[in-house]
Write a structure and sequence with these properties.
By secondary structure, this protein is mainly beta. Helices cover 5% and strands 41% of the residues. The protein is globular, with a radius of gyration of 22 Å.
Length: 340
């Protein structure tokens, strides 16, 4: 029998062979490190400090806060708040659903995002799916603190920061909505930053930012930092807080465009401030440590797009939510508001 030419035979074999299933990309490898860029960093992070993996396997981890005796954090797309504390081998579900309580169309990320704890020890939640900021009461019920401005639903409240006088400020980008700014259910023309006073009055304090995201106060509460997750102009803004709670004199505190241009993953996102006024903000590469003067002192390099960070344990352990990971690192400083 006459044999087929090799090329034809090979093509015939390939055509008859069953199709192999598409290979999924391998999961990210935990390989975090510490990058020291200035001598001042050594006073904030011990020389022998290492970043430790606490838990993994999340879709997009975000919004950590120390609540009672554990770190709690959001998995935004999965609509879950998880809980982890030292000694646990894996994180456990703490609240589900966390951000969308009633199924509704039009959302790309429906879960909770930023979390905070008020002066009475109650958990506060930015809820994408419910388009509100809520508080969990002692009996486990949820109370909506704010869900509208001038009759219009918020976009998807993202992160919040509390003041000692009972005010809280939050950012409201469209990240939870399918189509973002083009979402048909978006009711506000801007992506704002709002102040809510203890009596429930809502004030729009910033409306000229493209994608406001993380938010934090300086230790004396005279400055308000806001991360802008705009790929075209990634940056951290800072504003002077006026006696009436409004903000002004907005200026760029840290421009992250150069770091983004180096191919590092991530944008400015969640942030926290330590007791000395240093800003620990997520950004290209991981968690950037910025002095009160705006100098980049060092980076906790995560290798992943990184959502947020928060202090826990005794106030000197920095917890980091980075894509599928929850990690922590020991520092020589403490978060603003923690007892010395």
């Amino acid at each position: 029998m006459r044999t087929l030419p090799k090329l034809i035979l090979a093509a015939t074999v390939l055509a008859l062979a069953p199709m192999a299933p598409a290979l999924e990309p391998p999961p990210p490898v935990f390989n975090m490190k510490i990058e020291r860029l200035a001598p001042e960093f050594d006073a904030l992070v011990p020389a022998d400090a290492q970043i430790e993996k606490c838990a993994e396997g999340f879709d997009w981890s975000e919004g950590p806060v120390w609540f009672k005796d554990a770190i709690v954090f959001s998995d935004v797309p999965q609509n879950v708040i998880y809980r982890w504390k030292p000694g646990m081998t894996a994180a456990e579900e703490f609240m589900k659903p966390s951000g969308m309580l009633t199924p509704s169309a039009g959302f790309r990320e429906q879960g909770s995002n930023g979390l905070a704890v008020d002066a009475q020890g109650r958990l506060m939640i930015c809820q994408h799916g419910e388009r509100r900021v809520a508080r969990v009461e002692a009996n486990g019920s949820q109370q909506a603190l704010v869900d509208r401005f001038e009759g219009n639903r918020f976009n998807s409240p993202n992160d919040l920061a509390l003041r000692s006088n009972g005010d809280f400020y939050f950012t409201d980008p469209p990240y939870g909505l399918t189509g973002l700014n083009d979402s048909p259910i978006k009711e506000l023309k801007w992506n704002g930053v709002y102040r809510v006073s203890p009596d429930g009055k809502v004030t729009l304090v910033i409306k000229d930012l493209t994608f406001p995201n993380g938010i934090a106060f300086s230790p004396d509460e005279k400055l308000l930092y806001v991360a802008v997750s705009d790929a075209a102009a990634p940056r951290v803004m800072v504003y002077d807080v006026q006696p009436d709670g409004t903000v002004g004199n907005g200026r760029v505190f840290f421009d992250a465009k150069t770091l983004a241009g180096q191919g590092r993953k991530g944008n400015p996102d969640g942030m926290k401030v330590d007791a000395k006024g240093n800003l620990f903000t997520t950004g290209p590469g991981g968690v950037l440590v910025i002095s009160p003067e705006g100098k980049h002192l060092g980076t906790f390099v995560t290798g992943q797009s990184t959502g947020n960070c928060a202090w826990g344990d005794d106030g000197s352990t920095l917890y980091i939510t980075a894509d599928m990971f929850l990690a922590r690192v020991k520092t020589s400083t403490k978060g603003a508001g923690w007892k010395k």
